[in-house]
Write a structure and sequence with these properties.
This protein has one domain: 3-Layer(aba) Sandwich (Rossmann fold), CATH 3.40.50.720. The chain has 11 helices and 7 strands. Helix 4 crosses helix 11, helix 6 runs parallel beside helix 7 and helix 7 runs parallel beside helix 8. Strands 3-2-1-4-5-6-7 form a 7-stranded parallel β-sheet, sandwiched between helices. The chain is α/β, with parallel strands linked by helices. The N terminus is likely disordered. Helix content is about 50%, strand content about 15%. Bound molecules: NADP nicotinamide-adenine-dinucleotide phosphate. NADP nicotinamide-adenine-dinucleotide phosphate binds next to helix 4 and helix 9.
Length: about 280
């Protein structure tokens, strides 16, 4: 067959296209090659997935992407009022707890059937160097971003192990855990602690078929980041060193998270995926 094609000077791609069109078979344009594969891999098939920080900018996008992929999303936040909008828009369920309270987390998760978790709830804390840090703020950042995420894994993974269906957990870390960012000593440290929680959880939960990964977004202009990264003197040099030269959107963070949750990522665990336009590769 290869020789036949090589010998045939009339069977160009254009003429193949013309023949295929003439006899009415689907053309490459009418059959999106990736759509079938994406639908197969990204179908979360009604699996119950908890998303913390769901009332926030990135959390809301994650809820939208996961519900679009047929997950049963359980959106969590500190108050039910803050979750009303995303629940009405997507039909997700809601649950409330404060990430600093183990009691609230344990109570909220005790009766839940869970297959997956996205630890997206987070606190930006302070803009401060090591010599200026307010150690009370440091403690609070650690309490939400690292301790809170660990508590969610602690209580959610127990449910997931009991259910014996495997599962997937994605922790929303940051580029700030991968490289040194000025004035980010508290936030970067909390996300670096979260990265270790990701690796140890991957090690311990792997035998139960539960995968644990993290994503590391660059700046997304949500409320959390705009007050600092929106300043021209901060934004200009940062974007100048980034290969893609622009900030991320909420959807650009949510889509890789949906992939990491899906069966398309079934051999990926303990990984730290930058979603940073190349910021941390230079
Ligand atoms: N924006 C960025 O540039 C950026 C970059 C890298 C990583 N990230 C990470 O992405 C995640 C989402 O950030 P975002 O930009 O979407 O911020 P956001 O809009 O401020 O959302 C943060 C969410 O975390 C929740 N939260 C904060 N403290 C909590 C607590 N004690 N208990 C329960 N929930 C709490 C907030 O709930 P309430 O609604 O109750 O306040 C809010 O829904 C965070 O983990 C953040 O560190 C963000």
């Amino acid at each position: 067959m290869g020789a036949w094609l090589e010998d045939s000077d009339w069977m160009t791609p254009v003429s193949i296209w013309a023949i295929v069109s003439a006899i009415g078979m689907p053309t490459p344009l009418s059959v999106p090659k990736t759509e079938g594969a994406l639908m197969t891999h990204l179908d979360l098939d009604g699996r119950p997935i908890l998303v913390t920080g769901a009332a926030g900018g990135i959390g809301g996008a994650i809820v939208r992407h996961l519900t679009a992929a047929n997950a049963h999303v359980i959106a969590s936040g500190r108050s039910s009022d803050s979750l009303t909008q995303i629940a009405e828009e997507t039909g997700c369920s809601t649950v409330t707890f404060d990430l600093t309270s183990e009691e609230e987390i344990a109570n909220a998760l005790s009766g839940l059937e869970l297959w997956g978790v996205v630890n997206c709830g987070g606190f930006g804390g302070e803009i401060a160097s090591p010599t200026e840090t307010d150690i009370d703020v440091f403690d609070k950042v650690m309490a939400v971003n690292a301790r809170g995420a660990l508590l969610v894994i602690k209580h959610a993974a127990r449910r997931m192990i009991e259910a014996a269906n495997g599962g997937s957990i994605v922790n929303v870390s940051s580029q700030a855990s991968l490289v040194a960012l000025r004035n980010h000593v508290s936030y970067g440290s909390s996300k670096a602690a979260l990265d270790n929680i990701t690796r140890v959880s991957a090690l311990e939960l792997g035998p139960h078929g539960i995968r644990v990964n993290s994503v590391h977004p660059t700046v997304v202009m949500t409320e959390m980041s705009a007050f600092y990264w929106g300043r021209p003197e901060i934004e200009g040099p940062a974007l100048a060193r980034m290969p893609l030269g622009r900030w991320a959107t909420e959807d650009e963070i949510a889509a890789p998270i949906a992939f990491l949750l899906s069966d398309g990522a079934s051999m990926i665990t303990g990984a730290h995926l930058p979603i940073d336009g190349g910021y941390t590769c230079v």
